[in-house]
């Protein structure tokens, strides 16, 4: 007889279930958000309950129709994590439960192989478009994905999505502290793929009416940025000590990659689905988490920095036709001060004797960013940070280039995306300092 999922609940949570006349066994039919509402707990507690049940339960004891239904049902409590995380977590559950049942293994392996065919139909990077947006892949949707960067052979050779999956699998199988963060990385990768698959790559920047040279430069930078992100994921797959000790550091590059992709989307498409993607629970959590990080750490660095950041935001939110230029100037000034405070010349002179790290007796920006990452082993993370800061500043310039009209008209979504891109980069620097260096 097949065992059902077993949920490890507190006495108070059990009382809430009884009060609502809901059985424990029926919880497996609910999503994480629904479980949180039923038990009156936060999302993190609901996720922990689901994962504990996964680790405790042998789910698939025999190759029957009922067993196949249970495989499908296994996606349900995990669906809020995104399809990549769901399929990988389901695969992990299958693998764990099948060890005593070798004869069943081949049957379920074939089922899993059939499922994976969906993921490779238009490339692994378009998994979310296949599952969430287009239950039956339409011709127009397929053409859009093929015309987006997700259909680019050069981009797919970077294996960004596959590496995100590898992080999930490695984190879970190793039972490491990265398990929770790994699922979030996969969820962010899903969200990013939805953004990158929503517009044709040739139409990049079309809503800002950019010059062709600016479009080509932006495309080239994003490919370099993507390559740097892939390199960081490769490092994380190896479960380095810095990621084990500070799992948040492993998550930050994925936030940056999604923030940049969001900004590219809003300047490239009038896709009505953007608002839906922006209201995604994970996207909302990232916004709150990022703003909170800045509120905590920025005043700790210097009492005057919050005022500078507020001034930059006020410039962006004003009705001044020149607001993007004012925002650009304010952001550059703030980042210069922050980077110099995190990596002062005297500290770098004690840390490095390499002549390439100095120009006219002053530390280069590259040297300062490497110094900020000095406690994160391996060069991929340092290189990604440098590309991230450069990409953020170039993006503001891109918005500024799109202000040629007498009264440039930016949408609320565009301004929101620009703000989050800058905000996330600022938080990236602060988190590294306060998580890895202090």
General description of the model:
With 438 residues, this protein is an all-alpha fold. The chain folds into 2 domains: 11-120, no CATH class; 126-437, no CATH class. Helix content is 69%, strand content 1%. It is built from 22 helices and 2 strands. It has helices at 11-19, 32-39, 43-56, 65-74, 83-98, 102-120, 127-133, 139-147, 153-156, 160-173, 179-196, 212-237, 241-245, 247-266, 274-278, 281-301, 305-317, 323-342, 345-351, 365-372, 379-401, 412-437, and strands at 358-359, 362-363. The chain has a two-stranded antiparallel sheet with strand order 1-2. The longest helix has 26 residues, at 212-237. The N and C termini lie far apart (54 Å).
Give the integer mean of the pLDDT values: 75
Number of domains: 2
Overall 3D form:
globular
Number of strands: 2
Task: Summarize it.
The protein has 438 residues and is mostly helical. The chain has 22 helices and two strands.
SSE topology:
Layout: H1 11-19, H2 32-39, H3 43-56, H4 65-74, H5 83-98, H6 102-120, H7 127-133, H8 139-147, H9 153-156, H10 160-173, H11 179-196, H12 212-237, H13 241-245, H14 247-266, H15 274-278, H16 281-301, H17 305-317, H18 323-342, H19 345-351, E1 358-359, E2 362-363, H20 365-372, H21 379-401, H22 412-437
Antiparallel strand pairs: 1-2
